[in-house]
Amino acid sequence: AQKITQTQPGMFVQEKEAVTLDCTYDTSDPSYGLFWYKQPSSGEMIFLIYQGSYDQQNATEGRYSLNFQKARKSANLVISASQLGDSAMYFCAMREGDGRALTFGSGTRLQVQP
Amino acid sequence: DADVTQTPRNRITKTGKRIMLECSQTKGHDRMYWYRQDPGLGLRLIYYSFDVKDINKGEISDGYSVSRQAQAKFSLSLESAIPNQTALYFCATSDPAYLDTGELFFGEGSRLTVL
Q: How many angstroms separate the CA of residue B21 from the nearest CA in chain A?
């Protein structure tokens, strides 16, 4: 079974609008962490935001917020006020326990239109 | 200079050749990883190492080997490259999650093409 599922291969959003990128996860470990990374066309992986399984509040970092719904096992990334520079691939990833490594989803390609 | 450096950044080779991708880091992390990225498949773990004496296979280790020469250096080898190993390869490092979040710090990637 997939540990991380991103069901949106591609998304479009108008500049200045908000967009939600979906991520669902599967784990039986009570301690885990969820990450979002951005990969622009230049190829580097940029860390955006982190949510721990025991964190009571949803994580926020500037225009990025993580909508964490533990019972539904979802960790959606919300980007507010989209900018042209937000056009990129976005990957959701999970660490289980002090796990061996992060497991990544297949990614969502976001295109921001002017 | 980047905290995690990969060499070469780009390489074109032929089927059957031996290839080594090198990774060095200045973050002082014990944990190092090699991932492979293919379109539509995200990043998949090839090998990981939690210290110099610890090497572990990931989900797609067949056809690859690694060497942890020092805390700061972790190399990935393709003993006999084949075309379906054409991909973007990432080295990454991290602290253990009990020290921090376990966030991965990535190198800039090595694009390998096997003809």
A: 17
Structure tokens at B108: 């800039």
Is B69 an interface residue toward A (CB < 8 Å)?
Answer: no
> Rounded distance, CA A6 to CA A21, Å?
8
Give residue-wise pLDDT tens across range A50-80.
999 999 999 999 999 999 999 999 999 999 9
* Contact yes or no for B90 and A45 at CB 8 A: yes
Measure the CA dihedral B5/A45/A40/A21, to 10°: 180
> Do B47 and B64 meet the contact criterion of CB atoms below 8 Å apart?
yes
Residue B16 C-alpha, separation from nearest chain A C-alpha, in angstroms: 27
Report, as ranges of residue numbers, the positions in chain B whose pLDDT lies below 70. 1
Q: What letter would DSSP give residue A53?
A: T
B12 vs A: CB within 8 A:
no
- Nearest beta carbon to residue A100 from set B42, B56, B105: B56
Q: Are A44 and B56 inside 8 Å of each other by CB?
A: no
Whether the per-residue pLDDT at A43 is higher than 80: the answer is yes
Query: Is A91 in contact with B88 (Cβ distance < 8 A)?
Result: no
> For chain A, how long is the longest CA-to-CA vector?
42
What's the alpha-carbon Rg for chain A, to the nearest Å? 14
Do A72 and A26 meet the contact criterion of CB atoms below 8 Å apart? no
pLDDT of residue A1: 66
Shortest distance, CA A84 to any CA of chain B (angstroms): 22
Distance CA B23, CA B27 (A): 12
